[in-house]
Amino acid sequence: MPTAALLFLVLLPPQLVDRTKEVQSPPAVEQEITGEKRADIFMARKMYREAIEKYQFAIQAEPGSASLYNKLGIAYHQLHLFPEAKRNYERAIRLDKTFSRPVNNLGTVYHAERSYKKAAKTYRKALKISPNVASIHSNLGTAYFSRGDYKKATEEFLIALQLDPQVFEARGRSGSLLMERSVEDRAKYHFFMARAYASAGIYDRALLNLKRAFEDGYRKPRKVLDDPVFAPLLDNVEFQALVGAGPSQAAR
To answer: pTM score, two decimals?
Structure first.
């Protein structure tokens, strides 16, 4: 049974002012929050159908805007209307071939459709445009993980962490770049995330992901103990409790 998609929006825009609840607004203020800005507010509130309507209205005024087509694609994407999302991402790509966000987002559609090879290829295209975007490296790592290429997955997770140590903590619900975290084997995914964090020296997050791995059913504590990337944690009491080993066992 396919797992539910876990998509996060990153690269948040400037703070949006929520004025949708105002009963009466001066005409000038009302003008400021029509079109794209109002659609962004609807997106932040997860009102995706309303956002679609406003983005379509904005596109009528700016038919050459790659950014608007990308945002419209995201609104459809959040409703799991993948053909519509794909069509708008592709339109954005045609309008601006230097815009990496719709390329990345198109990759998340392929991932949702379980076309992991095509997703990885698309993420690599996005990285040719924007090689230093942590979220895209994270997405590429997730695609590799879903294909069973754990070595390449870990390499991409490490690059993502080097570019942005907070990349995996993003929880934004507005923006223009999607981050894919939908995988079938959550336990193994958290184990490899723990390895990536430990390799980057971010040990609190390594411990957290190890805990999640065991909670999700990971059953190889000896493999954790024998993995050199976790060596700096051998004296950590929480680590010892997770792997079910006392100080002497952990040190062996």
So the answer is: 0.82
